[in-house]
Amino acid sequence: MIRSLSLENYRGFRCFDLHDLGQLNLIVGTNNSGKTSVLEALYILESPGEFGPIRSTLSRRGEDFEESDLNRVVWQIDVRRLFHGHELAIGSRISLGAETNRGHDQFTAIITEPTPDSQGVQPQLFETFDSAVESDIPSQAAALGLRWQNALTGTDFSAVARLTPRGGIPSEALRTMMRGAEVQRVPIRFITASSLSPETVIQLFEEVVLTPDEDFVVEALRIIEPSIERIATSGIERRRAFPSRSASIRGGLLVRCKGIRDRIPIGSMGDGIWRLLGLALALARTKGGVLLVDEIDTGLHYSVMENMWQLVNQTAKKHQIQVFATTHSRDCYESLAVVCRDSVSSEGSEVTIQRLERGKSRSTAYSEQEIMAAAERGMEVR
């Protein structure tokens, strides 16, 4: 269980701390206050040796580019965007740290001079580099060094990749780095504001079909549509016939509802059903891990939010999942107050709201009792 999180020189945060974290944490704040950045930092920190979170974080924000090289187009991720102020001076450093029940987790990214072989695992990189040495943005070659230290798994994994003159890492280098990563990890999943992709939803559903988790997923969808009886995939033939189309639409799954003869494509049932489907599948497949949900209330009417929070809270407790979610909605956090009434504990708050404010170096943490009081008095905590 993560109890506190510290961010240094990461995106919009020069230095920032979240504290008094619980099992279920709702992050609130104005636009561009860094809510999504906190989720992305957790995703990177708790994925030791995994470069996918870094790549997806940058690509999702459009922080990548293409460049012609020897008559071919090379795709690169723009790692400058991870650094506060977008500075790539030798010695520039990002530090993400978490205090947990099992010890301290740490992620460090640093701009350094390249070694003769700067594409792969470099176990000694951070032991030999003097981070006090700084210079202007390098006109010569530079490299990005990464290091994860994870208390639960005993991971201490380092890698380094040479940067291009524009401050990018080519896709080929990323694939090379990923092949070198054989690190034990706890389950972690990120649901973006646009929900899980159709491919991921189908993959997760096929993992739970004919197990008790399938019943759990169906029950979750009944929060919105009580008549749903079953879910099934529409068959691999459709996905093979239209691979590019299937990748961009909510297809591949069918729903049978009581009293309706025809099977219904799940994409025709609205945003709320799709959001709950992704949330339920993620909960079912993240047991003992960390679930990150950006704008958790996306597509959900205020009337179902209390049941949604009950689903998330009860499942998180049952399967030891720590949840971090964001919202802009007052209805969302007021519905969370109802959950707090049922789960309030004298031993410490396991449901928290963390408010982020620009210009402040520390979140404002609300305990279960404070969340209930704010909701009852109509106080604004966003």
Describe this structure in words.
With 382 residues, the protein is α+β, with helices and mostly antiparallel strands. Mean pLDDT is 84; it is low at 120-139 and 244-248. The protein has a seven-stranded antiparallel β-sheet, with helices on one face. The chain has a six-stranded mixed β-sheet with strand order 12-16-17-3-18-19, sandwiched between helices. The protein has a three-stranded antiparallel β-sheet with strand order 4-5-11. The longest helix has 15 residues, at 305-319. The chain has three domains: 1-46 and 290-382, Rossmann fold, CATH 3.40.50; 51-184, no CATH class; 196-285, no CATH class. The chain has helices at 35-45, 52-60, 125-128, 171-179, 198-208, 212-221, 236-241, 243-246, 271-284, 305-319, 330-343, 368-377; strands at 2-10, 13-18, 24-29, 64-69, 72-78, 93-100, 103-112, 119-121, 143-150, 155-162, 168-170, 188-191, 228-233, 253-257, 264-265, 290-293, 322-326, 351-356, 364-366. Strand 16 (290-293), helix 10 and strand 17 form a beta-alpha-beta unit. It has twelve helices and 19 strands. 31% of the residues lie in helices and 29% in strands.
Protein traits:
12 helices, seven-stranded antiparallel sheet, alpha+beta, 382 residues, Rossmann fold
Total of domains: 3
Neighbour order of strands in the largest sheet: 2-1-6-7-9-10-8
Helices and strands: which structural class?
Answer: alpha+beta
First-last Cα distance = 25 Å
From the alpha-carbon coordinates, what is the Rg to the nearest angstrom?
A: 22 Å
Question: What best-fitting shape do the alpha-carbon axes yield?
Answer: globular
